[in-house]
């Protein structure tokens, strides 16, 4: 089997490549990545010399590069995206280009190359926002209601992927997963930002009242869900993927990290809220459990601790990542914090 992974130098994509090459060592992986600020080949050091792994530096918006990368490919797994909500608020254009136009270009080339499966990685954010007291969870039948440029661009890409199934018969599957955490996550996202700021003795910026709720999943569980969908998923179907947390808010997560690192809660700094901030996400993953026998294996508390350990041990990785472009972004986003 030969798999094209797009965005394989990012957080989830690189974890997926490491997971796949460990669990399916006979398969070949081609990683097509533009290496934006979020792409980092250091994540893939472990496999870079493996003859079954090949990296191509390229943009999913470049039809020629995509066409070449797709030669003899059986399966495409599309992780490539602009992925950070705050950046989508400041500058939506790259989100439209990569997440929508890039997906359309991949789909066109997938048809030409007659791939056996096009799996699209999406997010629970396409479903909008729940009220804190709402006991409902998002599922595969929930109406789309994106509220940020990021989630609107991901929603558009999901619609395109389904349209290519209906119109052209492209064998697709989609997964809409909740917030991931784990190694190699870029420190602009809440959990690695909180950990690395504390390790640098800097305050943790918490938006608004901090009572916003996300559904959290350890990244390896997400990789295993994609594996199940590729092996046993029904072509044309969507699968919601989520974690074991029940209504855990940002403030509680930050306090847990402070406790793990023996720091002081005075390190929390409440700052101006994100515009259009979605209050709550919760995911009902019973379809993938019942149909594909997948469920999360990593508990939040234990793997949050292990994630903190990973960032402690790999300070070279995040210190390099936190310089340059990221430093400029951070200063613009958080001022003197
Ligand atoms: P990330 O920002 O860490 O990585 C994105 C990767 O895509 C980077 O390596 C980047 O260089 C690459 N990329 C960006 N634009 C590209 C382009 N035009 N052509 C080729 N490569 C390009 O993102 P992530 O957190 O790993 O997310 C991966 C996917 O999973 C995204 O589609 C995202 O929407 C989805 N997702 C993320 C989460 C999460 O919690 N992080 C949850 C659910 C779904
Ligand atoms: P984030 O990691 O950006 O993921 P997403 O917005 O895609 O869910 O944010 C997770 C939650 O943490 C979200 O409610 C926003 C909040 N947050 C903060 O309070 N402070 C921060 O500095 C960041 C980056 C996020």
Helix segment tally: 12
Order of helices and strands: EHEEHEHHEHEEHEEHEHEHHHH
User: Which stretches are low in confidence, meaning pLDDT under 50 for 5 or more residues running?
Assistant: none
Q: Quick one: CATH superfamily of one domain?
A: NAD(P)-binding Rossmann-like Domain
- Named at the architecture level, the CATH assignment of one domain is 3-Layer(aba) Sandwich
Please state the CA-atom Rg, rounded to the nearest Å. Answer: 19 Å
Q: What class would the helix/strand composition place it in?
A: alpha/beta
SSE inventory with pairings:
Elements: E1 2-6, H1 11-23, E2 28-33, E3 53-57, H2 63-69, E4 75-78, H3 85-90, H4 93-112, E5 117-123, H5 149-168, E6 172-177, E7 179-181, H6 190-199, E8 204-207, E9 216-218, H7 219-232, E10 238-241, H8 250-260, E11 268-271, H9 286-292, H10 300-313, H11 315-321, H12 325-334
Parallel strand pairs: 1-2, 1-4, 2-3, 4-5, 5-6, 6-10, 7-9, 8-11
Helix pairs in contact: 1-7, 4-5, 6-8
This protein binds nicotinamide-adenine-dinucleotide (NAD) and thymidine-5'-diphosphate.
Residues 85, 179, 189-190, 193, 205-207, 212, 214, 250, 274 line the site of thymidine-5'-diphosphate.
């Amino acid at each position: 089997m030969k798999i094209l992974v797009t965005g394989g130098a990012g957080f989830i994509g690189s974890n997926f490549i490491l997971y796949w090459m460990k669990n399916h060592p006979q398969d070949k992986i081609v990683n097509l990545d533009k290496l934006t600020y979020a792409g980092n080949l250091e994540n893939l050091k472990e496999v870079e010399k493996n003859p079954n792994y090949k990296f191509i530096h390229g943009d999913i918006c470049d039809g020629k590069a995509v066409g070449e990368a797709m030669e003899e490919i059986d399966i495409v797994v599309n992780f490539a995206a602009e992925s950070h909500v705050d950046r989508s608020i400041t500058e939506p254009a790259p989100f439209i280009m990569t997440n929508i136009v890039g997906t359309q270009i991949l789909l066109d080339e997938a048809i030409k190359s007659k791939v056996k499966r096009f799996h699209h990685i999406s997010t629970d954010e396409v479903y909008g926002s729940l009220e804190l007291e709402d006991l409902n969870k998002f599922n595969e039948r929930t109406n789309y209601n994106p509220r940020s440029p990021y989630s609107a661009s991901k929603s558009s890409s999901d619609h395109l992927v389904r349209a290519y199934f209906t119109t052209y018969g492209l064998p697709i599957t989609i997964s809409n997963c909740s917030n991931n955490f784990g190694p190699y996550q870029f420190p602009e996202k809440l959990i690695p930002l909180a950990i690395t700021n504390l390790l640098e003795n800097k305050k943790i910026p918490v938006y608004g009242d901090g009572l916003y709720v996300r559904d959290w999943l350890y990244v390896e569980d997400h990789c295993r869900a994609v594996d199940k969908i590729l092996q046993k998923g029904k072509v044309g179907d969507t699968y919601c993927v989520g974690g074991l947390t029940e209504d855990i808010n940002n403030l509680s997560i930050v306090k847990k990290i402070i406790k793990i690192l023996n720091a002081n809660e005075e390190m929390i700094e409440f700052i101006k809220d994100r515009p259009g901030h979605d209050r709550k996400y919760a995911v009902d993953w019973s379809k993938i459990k019942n149909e594909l026998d997948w469920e999360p294996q990593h508990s939040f508390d234990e793997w949050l601790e292990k994630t903190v350990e990973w960032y402690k041990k790999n300070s070279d990785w995040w210190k390099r990542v936190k310089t340059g472009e990221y430093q400029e972004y951070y200063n613009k986003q958080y001022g003197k914090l």
